[in-house]
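Anyone up for a design puzzle?
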């Protein structure tokens, strides 16, 4: 009897988006001063770092090495935001609005991975990561709404 093992799929892509998000949040912390933003962005960074740490063993299994890159679309969004913030009257909203889009992308990538057959321990980890990333998304959405007014 031959046993078939399922290999993790799409994990490296999730990590790339999260690492791009970490870089983006760190830049936002530098550009937006104030304890409110600093604490908020630190929570988002910590949540993503924890998720990357949890997912990295599956990326190693998927591709044979740790995923260290950041997603190019997130990097492009970060560059766009930097330019738009220079032209905007509300730099805070510009950053928050674009960071909320990154949160959307993180959730989309996790959902894509969950649609694929995953090893059970990977699926459990992805479900746990999804819950935490949904919390981050909801917090960022609330901040985005508050910044609009």
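Challenge accepted. My sequence:
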């Amino acid at each position: 009897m031959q046993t078939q093992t399922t290999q993790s799929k799409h994990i490296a892509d999730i990590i790339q988006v999260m690492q791009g998000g970490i870089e983006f949040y760190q830049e936002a912390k530098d550009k937006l001063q104030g304890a409110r933003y600093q604490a908020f962005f630190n929570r988002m960074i910590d949540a993503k770092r924890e998720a990357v740490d949890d997912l990295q063993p599956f990326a190693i299994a998927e591709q044979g090495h740790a995923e260290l890159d950041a997603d190019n679309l997130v990097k492009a969004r970060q560059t766009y935001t930097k330019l738009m913030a220079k032209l905007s009257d509300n730099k805070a909203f510009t950053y928050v609005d674009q960071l909320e889009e990154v949160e959307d992308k993180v959730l989309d990538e996790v959902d894509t991975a969950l649609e694929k057959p995953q090893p059970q321990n990977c699926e459990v980890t992805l479900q746990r990561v999804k819950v935490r990333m949904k919390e981050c998304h909801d917090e960022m959405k609330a901040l985005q709404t508050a910044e609009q007014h």
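A detail worth pointing out: The mean pLDDT is 92.
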